[in-house]
């Protein structure tokens, strides 16, 4: 099995051309959002995830913060910034936790949360794994993700495989719950990052395109992540998440850096997500998509046919 980052792989989500196009559209969207934030404050020089929505902008206004940054250090687009200091986690909680709690059973922990320790330990390891094992996929992470913040259940517990959240309300920030497993904790978190990067890609495209024709956006379609029928656009997100996890494991398997146990884990996850991706693509056969949605689905289908050879 060999990973080839060929330009023929696609122009929206897969391969170097897909990354180039996404990066251009992401930058254009940030420019628009930055200009809107300038209506509230003057002199804003750089985009941050909380600027993606009115609800977060208004929350920062209510808190009376100077909008240079809600965190103490910003690395720009060079590396994703891991939000893990007590002060930064608290500030993130204050700005976006209402959105997170409304959308899920999860929350941004407070600085004294026991779940924060595992996040602080494993997130840097997970990013290093992606960077070392899959340089192309790491460039996708760099482009799509500006901040990475912690998650936990509202009861303060952690799920076995860990979960993540990406939201239109704070685009370019992914929130991650550290997995609660004895082995391959950092590797599993890396896989979850790949999952969330798919949501980040699609959310940028959704800013200017419905992906699915409007009358069918909420049509029940089987979700290969939740294993139940969900609104079509959410199931499209699930399908793309499996594609990205397949892409990451595929590239990682071509690296000589994973040890034998890690390689076995990667192969298991690759096969699992390859099957889920195929099922996800099949679920959208006959579903009316926009031109962009059709091109993304076709690109995913082509990618899977190449990986299956």
Topology record:
Elements: H1 15-37, H2 54-63, E1 81-82, H3 86-103, E2 106-107, H4 115-133, H5 135-144, E3 147-150, E4 152-153, E5 164-165, E6 173-176, H6 185-206, E7 220-222, E8 229-231, H7 232-253, H8 260-283, H9 291-307
Parallel strand pairs: 1-3, 3-6
Antiparallel strand pairs: 2-4, 5-6, 7-8
Helix pairs in contact: 1-5, 2-3, 4-5, 4-6, 5-6, 6-7, 7-8, 8-9
Kindly give the count of domains: 1
Shape: globular
- Give the helix/strand class: alpha/beta
In the predicted model, the low-confidence regions spanning at least 5 consecutive residues are none
Tally the helices: what do you get?
Answer: 9
Tell me the series of helices and strands, N- to C-terminal. HHEHEHHEEEEHEEHHH
Give the integer mean of the pLDDT values: 90
Estimate the strand proportion: 5-15%
Largest beta-sheet characterization: 4 strands, mixed
Strand line-up in the sheet with most strands: 1-3-6-5
Number of strands: 8
The oligomerization state is single chain
Through-space gap between termini? 9 Å
Helix fraction by DSSP (H/I, runs of at least 4)? 40-55%
Query: In angstroms, what is the radius of gyration?
Result: 19 Å
């Amino acid at each position: 099995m060999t990973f080839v980052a060929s330009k023929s792989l696609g122009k929206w989500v897969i391969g170097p051309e897909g990354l180039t196009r996404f990066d251009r559209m992401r930058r254009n969207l940030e420019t628009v959002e930055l200009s809107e934030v300038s209506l509230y404050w003057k002199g804003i020089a750089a985009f941050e995830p909380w600027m993606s929505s009115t609800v977060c902008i208004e929350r920062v206004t209510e808190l009376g913060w100077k909008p240079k940054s809600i965190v103490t250090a910003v690395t720009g687009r060079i590396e994703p910034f891991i939000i893990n200091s007590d002060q930064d986690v608290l500030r993130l909680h204050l700005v976006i936790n209402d959105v997170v709690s409304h959308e899920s059973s999860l929350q941004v922990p407070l600085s004294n949360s026991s779940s924060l320790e595992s996040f602080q330990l494993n997130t840097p390891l997970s990013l290093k794994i992606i960077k070392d094992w899959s340089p192309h996929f790491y460039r996708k992470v760099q482009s799509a993700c500006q901040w990475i913040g912690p998650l936990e259940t509202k009861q303060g517990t952690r799920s076995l495989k860990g979960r993540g959240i990406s939201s239109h309300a704070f685009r370019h920030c992914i929130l991650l719950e550290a997995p609660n497993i004895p082995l391959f904790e950092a590797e599993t978190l890396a896989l979850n990052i790949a999952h969330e990067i798919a949501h980040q890609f699609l959310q940028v495209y959704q800013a200017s395109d419905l992906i699915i024709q409007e009358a069918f956006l909420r049509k029940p379609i089987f979700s290969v992540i939740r294993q139940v029928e969900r609104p079509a656009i959410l199931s499209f997100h699930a399908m793309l998440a499996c594609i990205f996890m397949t892409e990451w494991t595929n590239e990682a398997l071509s690296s000589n850096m994973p040890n034998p146990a890690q390689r076995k884990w990667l192969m298991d996850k690759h096969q699992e997500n390859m099957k889920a991706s195929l099922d996800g693509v099949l679920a959208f056969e006959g579903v009316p998509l926009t031109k962009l949605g059709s091109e993304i689905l076709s690109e995913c289908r082509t990618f899977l046919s190449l990986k299956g050879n």
